[in-house]
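can u do me a favor
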């Protein structure tokens, strides 16, 4: 990539040495396969520990009532960031925030579960259906 259109500062940050820095984080398994596990700018730091939102989202998606999930970090004076999950439900389904929080807590390591789960009617998305977490963070900050 040569750079971002008319955004020289963004280009310098993303392509400092000719290699594109996407912000994707991945891992390689014992067979040599690579997996994208999250994005660097979406990581949550809670109490000095790094929390991967995607792990929490995948646990939420295992619940039969959950249609979509987005996990973000929100500022917290004590922990640095707190984990918040926003969830939409499948048509005709009903589940409470406390039930979802308990469900996910049993599937994740200690401290990596959301402290707040909000059931919302919809999540902001791109024209291709990707959930826009930056818009969620912005809306919560205002």
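np, heres the sequence
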């Amino acid at each position: 990539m040569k750079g971002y259109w008319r955004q020289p500062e963004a280009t310098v940050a993303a392509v400092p040495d000719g290699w594109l820095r996407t912000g994707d984080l991945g891992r390689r398994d014992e067979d040599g396969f690579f997996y994208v596990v999250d994005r660097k700018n979406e990581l949550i730091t809670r109490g000095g520990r790094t929390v991967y939102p995607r792990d929490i989202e995948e646990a939420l998606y295992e619940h039969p009532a959950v249609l979509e999930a987005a996990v973000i970090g929100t500022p917290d004076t004590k922990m640095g960031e707190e984990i918040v999950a926003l969830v939409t439900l499948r048509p005709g389904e009903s589940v409470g925030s406390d039930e979802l929080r308990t469900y996910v807590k049993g599937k994740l390591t200690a401290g990596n579960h959301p402290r707040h789960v909000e059931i919302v009617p919809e999540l902001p998305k791109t024209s291709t259906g990707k959930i826009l977490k930056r818009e969620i963070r912005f809306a919560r900050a205002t």
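The mean pLDDT is 91. hope that helps!!
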